[in-house]
Amino acid sequence: MSRLSAVKPAYWIAGVLLAATIVAPLIVSSYAKAEPRLWGFPFFYWYQLLWVVLSVFTVGIAYKLVMGEERKRRAAQGLGDPDKPAKGAEQ
Fold it and tell me: Which chain regions cross the lipid bilayer (predicted)?
């Protein structure tokens, strides 16, 4: 079995979400225009601001997916919850 096939679907989904939020704003030719306007703002500006908001949601979803997989992996290995410090590690 290759290492690539061992990657969980949650990691693939998180990667696609993060890649989309990076790649879409880089394709400037798709939104370098003034029309349609939204509340007086040219398309160029409100499209970029829309991606800022969408990025917040996609990063949040990716974080939840990856942390869920991390919790499952740590529980399967008996390592405990990654959000709680280990005993003896508290200061």
Answer: 12-32, 44-66
